[in-house]
TrEMBL record:
InterPro entries noted in UniProt: RmlC-like_jellyroll, RmlC_Cupin_sf, UGlyAH_Cupin_dom
Gene3D superfamilies to which the protein is assigned, alphabetical: Jelly Rolls
Organism: Davidia involucrata
Domain (S)-ureidoglycine aminohydrolase cupin as annotated: residue spans: 88-161
Parts of the chain that traverse the membrane: none
CDD domains: cupin_TM1112-like
Superkingdom of source: Eukaryota
Protein name: (S)-ureidoglycine aminohydrolase cupin domain-containing protein
């Protein structure tokens, strides 16, 4: 339910306690006001099929707040869908940009790299592992210093990056 409170805060709903759950299904959760006014009421929807996003719809206006999820795999830290406020706080949009077309190449990180993918899809294979770490548009990724890997770019990449 914490996610629903976050959706209420993002949407500007002053009193989220005024809302009660009317419908719960396997794939969605919808909230409607307990006393519906004659005009269309705001609606918050949680849909597991749509990358676990929350959306508020009021008379055709839709605001989405994607669920942020952090993972670490094979030494690579991935933060999915970080909030814009976090990106602004870190100055990500002011970092240099780099891009490449679909390709496959080896890479070694001589220092820690932090990047935010604007576009693309990549499988990163750390040396000595047959497993890949998949990253894509909307991912905030941290590669550790000293990592050697192979990048397999399946969709052209455009990213902001910063070396520490």
């Amino acid at each position: 339910m914490a996610s629903l409170s976050a959706a209420a805060a993002i949407s500007g709903i002053k009193n989220p306690n005024r809302y009660n759950t009317q419908t719960i299904t396997k794939h969605s959760l919808s909230l409607f006001p307990s006393s519906c006014p004659p005009t269309p009421a705001p609606r918050v929807r949680y849909c597991r099929r749509a990358r676990r996003s929350l959306s508020l719809s009021t008379q055709g206006l839709v605001i989405r707040a994607a669920e942020t999820m952090s993972t670490e795999k094979l030494g690579i830290k991935i933060h999915k869908n970080p909030p814009e406020s976090k990106l602004t706080e870190l100055g990500v949009r002011k970092w240099p940009k780099w891009g490449c077309p679909p390709s496959k190449f080896p890479w070694t990180y001589t220092s820690k790299e932090t990047c935010y993918l604007l576009e693309g899809k990549v499988k990163v294979y750390p040396d000595g592992s047959k497993e890949a770490v998949e990253i894509g548009a909307g991912d905030f990724v941290v590669f550790p210093k000293g990592m050697s890997c192979t990048w397999d770019v399946s969709e052209a990449v455009d990213k902001h990056y910063n070396f520490d």
